[in-house]
Amino acid sequence: MTQLSAARKPNDSSSNALYGGKGTRRITVRDITLAKERGEKWPMLTAYDAMTASVFDEAGIPVMLVGDSAGNCHLGYETTVPVTLDEMTMLSAAVVRGTSRALIVGDLPFGSYQEGPVQALRSATRLVKEAGVGAVKLEGGERSHRQIELLVESGIPVMAHIGLTPQSVNSMGYRVQGRGEEAAQQLLRDAKAVQDAGAFAVVLELVPAELAAEVTRVLHIPTVGIGAGAETDAQVLVWTDMLGLTGGKMPRFVKQYANLREVMGGAAKAFAEDVVGGTFPQEEHSVH
Ligand code: KIV
């Protein structure tokens, strides 16, 4: 859908920065690796549909995650647990179609890789072949290293995800991870395990800022923080949280850059009142 992405205007036309650089080709994991070497910070947003993804692509967001947060933020589930591989494949394909520059990372949903490396490869292959994603993401540190190894050996780039892993909500809850010496050491072991297994980046979710900073210093792959302080290489937010579309109370780590819920609700009411009051459509909206 190049038409949707045609208007993207990079800020800095003289560099190959991930955000603001002049490049127009699809970003690859190699570009992400080079950004860490340059010490460059970068933004990542979730996306679940072609139209929204095209807006973020035009804005220059270099990496989009088709997260299984689609479960709560797009598909109406309570958690990410019910999301299926078929759903992730359909949503990921839409996001790929809506973008021309961003690296699209497709999330492997709960139950699609926990059985072992072969199941992970079968599932990831669907996201790569049917949806066209450039990389996949899966949750777990040491416990997922065999899956990561096989995917990477098979040519599928992997973004790992440690700290709070929402697919384990039933055993872990939504609590800060890595607090206390033992938990911090486990997080460091998890981070090193996914790096050693070949992951090109790792999401750190809801971990103390000082620990996330230490992981970022120790690793040579980029860290992508969400609720992990300011020192990670990249930051990710769920787009419906960031733009104020999600209802209810937001976690402390979310910064809302707009209030789409108010804007959309207000527009819907204005439309309804026009229809009920007979002021829409008017002559300019009519054909003869
Ligand atoms: O599914 C998702 O959106 C995620 C991000 C919160 C990192 O995993």
Automatic annotation (TrEMBL):
Give residues annotated as binding 3-methyl-2-oxobutanoate: D68, S69, D107, K137
**Biological pathway:** Cofactor biosynthesis; (R)-pantothenate biosynthesis; (R)-pantoate from 3-methyl-2-oxobutanoate: step 1/2
Cofactors named for this entry: Mg(2+)
A GO molecular function assigned to this protein is: 3-methyl-2-oxobutanoate hydroxymethyltransferase activity
Q: Which CDD domains match?
A: KPHMT-like (cd06557)
Listed transmembrane segments: none
Q: List, in alphabetical order, the GO biological process terms annotated in this UniProt record.
A: pantothenate biosynthetic process
Tell me the superkingdom of the source: Bacteria
The cofactor note reads: Binds 1 Mg(2+) ion per subunit.
Q: Which UniProt keywords apply?
A: Cytoplasm, Magnesium, Metal-binding, Pantothenate biosynthesis, Transferase
Q: Which reaction does it catalyse?
A: (6R)-5,10-methylene-5,6,7,8-tetrahydrofolate + 3-methyl-2-oxobutanoate + H2O = 2-dehydropantoate + (6S)-5,6,7,8-tetrahydrofolate
Active site, renumbered: E205 (proton acceptor)
Per the record, which residues fall in region Disordered? 1-20
Q: Which GO terms describe its cellular component?
A: cytoplasm
Q: What is its EC number?
A: 2.1.2.11
Q: Spell out the subcellular localization from the entry.
A: Cytoplasm
Binding annotation for Mg(2+): D68, D107, E139
Query: Subunit structure, briefly?
Result: Homodecamer; pentamer of dimers.
Q: Report the protein's function.
A: Catalyzes the reversible reaction in which hydroxymethyl group from 5,10-methylenetetrahydrofolate is transferred onto alpha-ketoisovalerate to form ketopantoate.
The record's similarity note reads:
Belongs to the PanB family.
| Descriptive protein name | 3-methyl-2-oxobutanoate hydroxymethyltransferase
Q: Which gene encodes it?
A: panB
